[in-house]
Every structure is written in C-alpha cells, then in structure tokens.
Amino acid sequence: MLIASLIERKRDGGRLSPAEWTELIARYTAGDVPDYQMSALLMAVLFRGLHSTELDALADSLLRSGDNLHFDGLASPVVDKHSTGGVGDKTSLILVPLVAACGVAIPMMSGRGLGHTGGTVDKLEAIPGFRTDLSLRDVERQVRELGCAMLRQTPEICPADGRLYALRDVTATVESIPLIAASIMSKKLAEGLTGLVLDVKTGSGAFLPEMDRALELAKTMIGLGESRGCPTVVLLTAMDRPLGRALGNALEVEETILALEGKGPPDLMEVTLALADEMLVLARVAPDHAAARRLLEKTLASGAALDMFGRLIEAQGGDRRIVDDPSLLPQAGAVEVYRAPATGTVSQVEPRQVGRAITELGGGRRTLEDVIDPSVGFVITAKPGDRVTAGEPIASIFARDKAGIETGTRALGQAIVIGEAADPLRLISHRVTSRGVEVLS
Amino acid sequence: MLIASLIERKRDGGRLSPAEWTELIARYTAGDVPDYQMSALLMAVLFRGLHSTELDALADSLLRSGDNLHFDGLASPVVDKHSTGGVGDKTSLILVPLVAACGVAIPMMSGRGLGHTGGTVDKLEAIPGFRTDLSLRDVERQVRELGCAMLRQTPEICPADGRLYALRDVTATVESIPLIAASIMSKKLAEGLTGLVLDVKTGSGAFLPEMDRALELAKTMIGLGESRGCPTVVLLTAMDRPLGRALGNALEVEETILALEGKGPPDLMEVTLALADEMLVLARVAPDHAAARRLLEKTLASGAALDMFGRLIEAQGGDRRIVDDPSLLPQAGAVEVYRAPATGTVSQVEPRQVGRAITELGGGRRTLEDVIDPSVGFVITAKPGDRVTAGEPIASIFARDKAGIETGTRALGQAIVIGEAADPLRLISHRVTSRGVEVLS
Questions:
Q1: Percent of residues, chain A, with pLDDT higher than 90
Q2: Which residue in A189, B47, B97, B152 has a CA-CA distance of 20 to 30 Å to A124?
Q3: C-beta neighbour count of A441 within 10 angstroms
C-alpha cells in the first residue's frame, strides 16, 4: 500500500476501500505511517468528505484499535450521553447521577476543556480529591456496584483516535463532519452501550455553528450508531449563549448541586431533562416520554439524584461533603458584581468571548499542559431577551485577584451586548432519530 | 505565530501575509515547524491556491533560504532553460552545448528522473565518469572558462525548496500550480540569469496534462520571473507521445550526439531549435528569430556544438571519446527488434506507459535510492499518424537479459496502439511571454 497514492486518490475525490482504511489506521497506530502523510490525508478528507463505506471502515478501525468496556450479564441497560461542547454546559454532571438513580447504568468518558469550551473532566476535578483516571476494569466494577462512573479519556479506548485527534488539533483538520463523527462514535461504541443520546450544539459558541452542518453531523452519528446496534437519538440545542448561569469549573459544580435539588436555572433544567428523558426511553426504564418526565421529577424531588451524586463523588475519592456545603469547593480570591452599563434588552451573551475570558482568568487551558484555577469564572444571570436597567446587577465575576476582576469586567463589557431586541435560537430546536428530523416548536 | 491558525485561514480560503510566509518558511527550514503541519498547509494550498502576494512571498522565501550563483563581470549573457519533464526529452543535453557554442553562458541545474519521466542528471551520468555534483563555486568557474556547466540540484541552492519538494512528493501535494511555479522559479532565479526559457509539457505524459492548467502554470512562472528582472518565455510542447526516438539514459545520450551533428529526429530537432532560438534572442546574441535560426544551424553544421559537448564532458570528468564512438556508452545485454502487430495507423505511443516500462527494465527509479541501469530502454521509430504494416520493425528493445526483452515487448504492445487514425497534439502549440499567449499554427 503506497500511502501517497491513497492521499492522491482522496485528494482527487475518489474513495479508499474499507481494507485500505483498516490497514492505514492499523499502520498509523503501529507508527508505520508518518504524521505528515496522515495530516495531508486528513486535510484532503476535510475538503472531499468520506463516502459512507469509508466512514464505516474508519470508525470501526478506530474502535478496534483499543479495548472495550464489557457489561455482560448486567441487568440494567447501559446508556450514555455526549455533547459536542459548549460554554456553561454542566448537563453531564447532573444527568449521570439523575439517570443512574432511575436505574440506568452510565459509564461516561469525557474530555477536558480546550479552546473556548469547558470540559466535564475539569469540572469534576474542581471537587477536592475527585479522581477521573479510572481504568476500564475500575469503571466496569463501579458501574456494576453504583450504577455510574465518570472518567477522563483513557488510552485503553481508541488509542488511534487519541493520536489522530492530537494531530487534527494542530493541523486545522478538526472541523470535518465525518472525522468528528468517527471520533465521537468510535469512543462511545467502545463503552458497550444499549443506547446513546447526543447533544449537538448550534450557534456562535458551537464548534459547528451552522444549523445545516449540525444536522448533517447528527445524521452521520446516528447512522454509525444504529448500524452497529446502538440506538442513537440527537437533540440540537442552542449554544448562541451560555447554558445556565454558572460558568467556570467550581461554580458549575455548585450549579449542578442546585439542579439536582430541582432548583437549577430554567434553560439548564430544560436541556438536562430533555436529554435525560431520551436516555430513560432508550433504556426502556420508562415506556414513553411522559412517564420518563414523571420518573425524573420524582427522582429529583426525593433527593435520590443528589444522593447518587454524593455516592459517585465518594466512590471516586472526592469529598462528598460539598453536596451539602458547596463552600468546601475552591473559592475565588476576589468576587465582584457586574452591573448593566445601559438600559435596554440583552441582545447577546457571546459564549466564545465568555469562554475565552474564563481562560484569561486562569480557569481554562491554552495548551493541554496548563494547570488551571478551578475557582474562577462568572455567574451571568441575564439572558438574551431580558430587559435590564442601567446599574442593575446582571452578573458576578469570580477571579484570583483585583487584576482578574478588571479582566473579567472588560470581558463581560464585550460579551454582554445590550441593545434594542434579541433573536436567540430556540433552546432545543431539533430532535433527530433514525426515523428522521423533528423540528421542535 | 500559531501555525494551526495559519493552516485554518488558508483552509478556509483566506490569505497569509507576506511576513507570515517569510517567517513560516524560515522556521520550517530551521526545523521549528513540523512536517505534519507543513503537509496539511500544502494540501490546503492545493485546494485553495495562492494569491499573487502569497506566491511572491513564498518564492522569495525559498530563494533566500540558500546561496546564489554570481556572474558579476561576465561579458556573456547568462540564460537557462527548464522543462516540466517528459519521456524522451533530451533537449537539455543538446541545448546546453549548442547555445553555449553560440556565446551564451548556461549554468544548468537539473533533476533526476522520478515517476514516469526521465531526468537530465541520470542521462548525463550514463556517460562514463561524468560528475554532476559540482559546487556553486565550481559552476561559476566552469561557466566563466567554458561557457556552460550541468549539475544536479545542490542543497546550497534553495534548501527550503528541497525539503518542501521531498515532503510534497510523499503527500500528494505536487500538482499545485503555485507550488510548482514557486519551486521551479526559486531555483532558476538563484542561478543569476539574464533570461529564462521554459518548456511546459502538455498531454497525457505531462505532470499537468490539461492545456488550460499548463497555460496557467506558464503565466504564473512568467509573472514570477519578469517581476524579478528575469525575462521569461514559455513554449508549450506536446508530451502526448515521447520526444525523439531514443528512450533510456545511454540511448538518449547517443541520440543527443546525432542531434548535435544535425541528424536528430525531426520532432526533437524542432523542439530543441525552437527553445534554443528563444534563448539566443533573450540573450541578445541574435537580433531576431530568423537570425537566431541561422546562427544555430551554422553552429551545428560547423561541428562547434558537438565539440562543445565533448569539452563539457571532459570538464566534468567524463569520457569525451563517446562523442566520436557512442559504443563506449553502457551497452544493453540483450537487444531485440519490435514489429508492428497489425497493419494500420499508429494512433498512440503512450508516454506514461513507455516511461514506466523503462523503470521496469531497471532504467528508472521507484525511490530516490534505487541504482539504475543506464543501458536499457527503447528506440521507437513509429510516431502517431504513421502508417505501418504488420511485421514491420517499429522499435528496438534494449534490456539486461531475455526476461527484460519479454517485459519490454509486453510494454510496447500496450503503449503503441495501432488503429484507424491519430490525433496527436501540435508539437509546439503555444508561445507565452509577458505580452500574452500566441497560439502557433
């Protein structure tokens, strides 16, 4: 197999055979294909796309490059959720204990924040003592005993994807729908799932801002899941503004606790419950969506969901007392209220600017090696469409020191636009399944 | 400078600034930019092209990455010729002594054969003892003393281009017009020329078979040359069949000697004289094309051109006796006549197939490390449009042994198509200068 001629064929719009993809990924994983050939091929794929036979072969090759989770003999259904990433998105932290408390097993593998988006692993690690570096055998044991586990990506699962992703990140080849789909789905399919719910973000703060590309990604991932025996449902949700109010790792854990008490901000609760609802129906622990909603509300109201969060924290070495006393979470050195600079309608809360501002405050990474400060961030109570009066408190800034407060104030001055009107995206705009696309209204 | 964001900008159709190209190439040459980022960028360039400001900056950066030839104080004009490569193209071997004998200095740097095309350096090295690894100071001295020198590419000139070209070769990023133009012109501009003639091949055996892309390449190279004070003329010539009759390194040297005696095949003489004519006019040793032709014919007829070839060979360590006794060139172990398998019109002599067959016989390289046998190849006397009768000799096969003869026979059976009619390209179809395109008829 001459790699240069494979690249040439893809460059010119042709297809690689499944056997060629399989050999290519196997040889790349073995270190026999240099990165400079793979990155040229990835760029050609970005321009030319992948035929469905190529996508299948790529996803299967990534999947086969490592180990899988095994839940043979487990009575509970095993379901997971994945999001394409956003700002303020702490739904995973809420969903995992909530859905597990409803009798569904969840082995959730998540990423760290990078770029302007936060990462579930960083949020979990804001909890003192919380360990996310579980082995696959640890995960299997904990899921059997407790019903859930939350871990960081491990090289045991899809190591070829790990290498490819690192290469894509530095060669501007991330934004390819088939490459994103193969990367996400290979890792999720390695979790041994009965079903999968995906949250594809749209709008200015999403990796794929355009609705049509988000829908294409949704359909591509559903195709990969369903054809491998994993029923898959996608919700398209708005990321043209942050989700919820709390933005920053420890602050988002605190909002998670509120949400598990049923008192989270409305937008956060709506998205979380919609995703959880789909998970329960896929898992068949609820016969329909109405029954699923009732079960979720009962589980929140009874305190069972919050209790499960405490047990999850304890099982993974964290300090479960934070559930009752969030002041045990890392606290910012300086806090200041941010007031509306003018009277009018909040027309925008720009998520990319907010996400980058968290990084500037020390709460996000510029490179994977950066050490972050979990305490910093924002609580933004104003949402697009809200009427505000000049001088009214609309956010709080949590920083290391006075200089950070200034940075944060400047950033909010840019990110929160007060004007005449707002035209935010619908919070949950589409529901996509193997049967088609439902436009929600 | 974040390389990934440069790649992203080019990928999305934007431009890099001249300063960015300059820094990028400097850092790549210094080893500070990894090949995997450069290859992704090159693939993005292949899809998106380069704006003229980017092309200028790239060519200048390549040029500045190494040393130049200097001919200050030399009375003779310094002119060179470059071809985009073909099968049977030995025009350089004929032109250099012919034009030098007319009083023009020529420091010609050439490549080796790769893919289906032959290389001038391989042809020269078929001459026993001939050395092509001259230093730039050797070249300057020899050009001042003799009037010409022929050398292989040296890392002293455009080392950044050398690294880039090696990377492009294995990442399917060769076929980009701006990258080809920058690569060729940076090396030629480093030769300190008064003028440059380019032979851009078209047709099935050319790197860019399509006429419109060949014209685009021609205009791009002329733009680069003229704006740097190097008047540049391009002829588009046919490579839908081999040029001349002899194909293979030693065989082509033998045909060169015939041509320098004025007895070469008509197509080879026509292309060579047209290119030489342009060189003499650019060099101003002839006031117009008619005068140039007269000077060339006189120089061939007097034996001065052939004598210059002998002196060139001697100057570079070769055995100049081959000029009078071509049997001193490497001789094939087995020779056999190839006869027309049917009666009809030769409709095709497919140059790619012939070129690949030479490689199969051991006369070309699969990788740059291969050692080649200079003696093997073909002499094909039939040209597209010729009427042939079944059983009539139309070629000779030169091979190492009996097995090679069989390989060669099979290859000619595929490459030479006998049918009803032929529709070959016009041998010299266009003349392109800074003033425009002349379609020749």
A1: 92
A2: A189
A3: 5
What are the backbone angles phi and psi of residue A412, rounded to the nearest 5°? -70, -35
* Residues of B in Cβ contact (< 8 Å) with A42: 40
* pLDDT score for B368: 67
Retrieve residue B71's tokens: 């001919």
Give the closest-approach CA distance of A236 to chain B in angstroms. Answer: 25
Q: Which of A116, A123, A152, A187 is catalytic?
A: A187
What SS3 string covers chain A? CCHHHHHHHHHCCCCCCHHHHHHHHHHHHCCCCCHHHHHHHHHHHHHHCCCHHHHHHHHHHHHHCCCCCCCCCCCCCEEEEEECCCCCCCHHHHHHHHHHHCCCEEEEEECCCECCECCHHHHHCCCCCCCCCCCHHHHHHHHHHHCEEEEECCCCCCHHHHHHHHHHHHCCCCCCHHHHHHHHHHHHHCCCCCEEEEEEEECCCCCCCCHHHHHHHHHHHHHHHHCCCCCEEEEEEECCCCCCCEECHHHHHHHHHHHHCCCCCHHHHHHHHHHHHHHHHHHCCCCCHHHHHHHHHHHHHCCHHHHHHHHHHHHCCCCHHHHCCHHHCCCCCEEEEEECCCCEEEEEECHHHHHHHHHHCCCCCCCCCCCCCCCCEEEECCCCCCEECCCCEEEEEEECCHHHHHHHHHHHHHHEEEECCCCCCCCEEEEEECCEEEECC
pLDDT at A169 (0 to 100): 86
Q: Is A38 on the interface with B (CB under 8 A)?
A: yes
Rounded Cα distance, A136 and A150, in Å:
11
Specify whether A82 is catalytic. yes
A128 has pLDDT over 90: yes
Beta carbons within 10 angstroms of residue B391's beta carbon: 11
Burial classification of residue A360, based on how many CB atoms lie within 10 Å of its CB (0-12 exposed, 13-18 middle, 19 or more buried): middle
Residue B276, phi then psi, degrees to nearest 5:
-65, -40
C-beta atoms of A35 and B34 within 8 A? yes
Contacting A residues, span 168-197, partner chain B, CB-CB under 8 Å: 169-173
**Which of A171, A176, A207, A210 should be substituted to probe chain B, the one whose Cβ sees the most B Cβ atoms within 10 Å?**
A171
Percentage with pLDDT > 70 across chain A: 100
pLDDT one-digit tens code per residue, B39-77? 999 999 999 999 999 999 999 999 999 999 999 999 999
How high is the ipTM of this complex? 0.85
Predicted pLDDT of residue A118:
82
Active site residue A90: no
Provide the CB-side half-sphere exposure for B23 (13 A, CA). 9
Low-confidence stretches of chain B (pLDDT < 50) are none
Residues of A in contact with B170 (CB under 8 A): 3-4, 36-37
Task: List the single residue in A with minimal CA-CA distance to B47.
Answer: A47
Q: What is the pLDDT of residue A368?
A: 67
The pLDDT value given to residue B35: 95
Residue A188's pLDDT band (cuts 50, 70, 90): very high
State the pLDDT at residue A116: 82
Q: Give the per-residue pLDDT at B244.
A: 98
Give the nearest chain B residue to A13 (CA atoms): B47
Q: What are phi and psi of A159, to 5 degrees?
A: -60, -30
Q: Does B3 touch chain A (CB under 8 A)?
A: yes
The token pair at A239 is: 């990321």
What count of other Cβ atoms lies within 10 Å of the Cβ of residue B12? 11
Tell me if chain B has a CB within 8 Å of the CB of A33. Answer: no
Contact assignment for A11 to B44 by CB distance below 8 Å: no
Q: What is the pLDDT of residues A266-313, one digit of tens each?
A: 999 999 999 999 999 999 999 999 999 999 999 999 999 999 999 999
Supply the pLDDT for residue A243.
98
